[in-house]
């Protein structure tokens, strides 16, 4: 949260950023750290999207209960992304289906893309940041 | 676009994901443990062979040498040194590291 | 680890005075933290503090100031969902002060 920094209106260049998530959520710190980076990046008012590929699709599971492992349930935080104006969430169909999942298993609304569609989207980004 | 892979193809799926999500004409640079994919007999080399028509492959020579596999590099993979690594990054408008 | 003393109960805080355990929060603790921040709690202050607690409960993060302002505007109207109003209530920053009083952890990505 930033009280101090107010970005100037219309001052900077808007670039296309894709945050690509490929790791499952609670076994390593990548997913949580990655999500925090995304939330911080929202302050800079760039054109941000998130993509979930490989085990990264597990980050979006609903019905998560972390009370037994004494970790924060940051799965709920994905639902805050909309309030941060990060509304473009993409899931690769192949990764999703390989794990026996459907869109109904996710905690947020996502756009499911084929590998080719996601590949094209990635290629057109100015910056891709992968965790 | 430049794709950089640094994980062994027999330990992780990074190379598979890279090959699946790299658009035609992209460059793929293999570094660290990913260089094993560019060596004859490794299962990764079959995957590289299959994608060779549509992607351009590079491997970091110091990493190949350090692993004792420099003599086993398959045909069609261009070897680069650190300077070549920098050139590749500079030549492409964006890049993705498949950690 | 520094501590504070409220109603005879010892409570852990971090170096900047944020509660270490959310579950230690109570209205008395909030009053204590507000006094330390030199904020006199009015119903308008409580409204923001309670809003932050609800937000945290739902999303597990303390919102960025921009997001907080927007969310308050949506729920309580534009008269309250603006920087001027929030800074009048919490002069040293609604993010910092209100979050601390609400017992939330140090905000995510506080730049």
The whole-angstrom Rg of chain C is 13 Å
- Identify low-pLDDT runs of chain C: none
Instruction: Work out the strand percent of chain B.
Output: 15-25%
Mean pLDDT of chain B, rounded to whole units? 97
Question: What pattern of helices and strands is seen along the backbone of chain B?
Answer: EHEHEHEHE
CATH superfamily of chain B: DsrEFH-like
What fold name stands as the CATH topology of chain C? Arc Repressor Mutant, subunit A
The CATH architecture classification of chain C is Orthogonal Bundle
- Percentage of β-strand residues of chain C: 5-15%
How helical, in percent, are the residues of chain C?
A: 40-55%
Question: Major sheet of chain C, described briefly?
Answer: 2 strands, antiparallel
Total number of helices of chain B: 4
Q: Strand order within the widest sheet of chain C?
A: 1-2
What is the alpha-carbon Rg of chain B in Å?
A: 12 Å
CATH class of chain C: Mainly Alpha
Give the full name of the CATH homologous superfamily of chain C.
Answer: DsrC protein, C-terminal domain
Q: Which class of secondary structure composition applies to the elements of chain B? A: alpha/beta
Number of strands of chain C: 2
Give your account of this protein's structure.
The complex is a heterotrimer of chains A (131), B (99) and C (111). Chain A has one domain: Hypothetical Protein Ychn, Chain: A. By secondary structure, chain A is an alpha/beta fold. Chain A contains 3 helices and 5 strands, in the order βαββαβαβ. Chain A has helices spanning 30-41, 93-98, 115-123, and strands at residues 16-21, 47-52, 88-92, 111-113, 127-130. Chain B contains 4 helices and 5 strands, in the order βαβαβαβαβ. In chain B, strand 3, helix 3 and strand 4 form a beta-alpha-beta unit. Chain C is mainly alpha-helical and 111 residues long. Chain C has one domain (1-111): Arc Repressor Mutant, subunit A (Orthogonal Bundle), CATH 1.10.10.370. Chain C is 49% helix and 7% strand. Chain C has helices at residues 27-36, 43-59, 65-76, 83-89, 94-101, and strands at 3-6, 9-12. In chain C, strands 1-2 form a two-stranded antiparallel ribbon. Chain C is globular and about 40 Å long. Classes of the chains: A alpha/beta (131), B alpha/beta (99), C mainly alpha (111). The A-C interface holds A 1-5, 36, 39-40, 42-43, 72-74, 76-77, 79-80, 83-84 and C 58-68, 70-71, 92-96, 99, 107-111.
């Amino acid at each position: 949260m930033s009280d101090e920094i107010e970005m100037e209106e219309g001052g900077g260049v808007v670039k296309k950023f894709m945050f690509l998530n490929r790791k499952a959520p609670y076994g390593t710190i990548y997913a949580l750290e990655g999500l925090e980076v995304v939330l911080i990046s929202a302050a800079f008012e760039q054109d941000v999207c998130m993509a979930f590929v490989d085990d990264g699709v597990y980050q979006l599971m609903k019905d998560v209960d972390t009370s037994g492992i004494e970790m924060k349930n940051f799965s709920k935080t994905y639902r805050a992304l909309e309030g941060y104006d990060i509304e473009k969430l993409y899931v690769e169909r192949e990764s999703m289906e390989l794990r026996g999942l459907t869109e109904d298993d996710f905690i947020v609304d996502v756009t499911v893309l084929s590998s080719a569609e996601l590949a094209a989207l990635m290629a057109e980004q100015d910056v891709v940041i992968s965790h | 676009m430049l794709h950089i892979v640094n994980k062994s193809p027999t330990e992780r799926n990074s190379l598979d994901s890279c090959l699946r999500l790299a658009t035609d004409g992209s460059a793929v640079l293999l570094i660290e443990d990913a260089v094993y994919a560019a060596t004859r007999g490794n299962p990764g080399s079959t995957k590289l062979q299959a994608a060779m028509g549509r992607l351009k492959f590079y491997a970091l020579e110091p990493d190949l040498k350090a692993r004792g596999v420099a003599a086993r590099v398959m045909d069609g993979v261009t070897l680069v040194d650190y300077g070549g690594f920098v050139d590749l990054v500079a030549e492409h408008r964006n890049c993705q590291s498949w950690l | 680890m520094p501590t504070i003393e409220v109603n005879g109960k010892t409570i852990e805080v971090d170096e900047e005075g944020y509660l270490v355990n959310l579950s230690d929060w109570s209205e008395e603790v909030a009053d204590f933290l507000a006094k330390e921040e030199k904020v006199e709690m009015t119903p308008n202050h409580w409204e923001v503090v309670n809003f932050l607690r609800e937000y945290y409960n739902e999303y597990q993060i303390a919102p960025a100031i921009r997001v907080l302002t927007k969310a308050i505007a949506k729920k309580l109207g534009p008269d309250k969902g603006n920087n001027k109003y929030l800074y009048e209530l919490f002069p040293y920053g609604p993010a910092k002060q209100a979050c601390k009083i609400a017992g939330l952890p140090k905000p995510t990505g506080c730049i």
